[in-house]
Amino acid sequence: MKNDSVINRKATEFALRIIKAYQFLTTEKNEYVMSKQLLRSGTAIGALIREVEFAESKNDFAHKLRIALKEANETDYWLLLLSESNYIEKTAYDSIQSDCIELIKLLVSIIKTAKSNS
């Protein structure tokens, strides 16, 4: 998977949004627990997608993408908790959560394609 692929670009842009959200949550809201989890899982998605470029096999390729999918799902959970506990406003939640769902859909599609090609 090339560094300039759609999913790679979207994952990088998403990670940057997550970093900004983390900075906001820690400096403006003094929230450190959920925001740290959000930072970890939200930035892991892109890192795992980048690792796919050097997958050792088709199974390794699919495995790394499945882990990225799990991280995206976990990120969606932390975003929901932060929204429901009023740490982030609904409009901000809707926007970043939409990006997260888009990544999830892309990952599911790539995983399905990889599975059918093996």
TrEMBL record:
SUPFAM superfamilies in UniProt: IVS-encoded protein-like (SSF158446)
Pfam family membership, one: 23S_rRNA_IVP
InterPro entries recorded: 23S_rRNA-intervening_sequence, 23S_rRNA_IVS_sf
PANTHER family named in the record: FOUR HELIX BUNDLE PROTEIN
Record-given protein name: Four helix bundle protein
Source species of the chain: Phocaeicola barnesiae
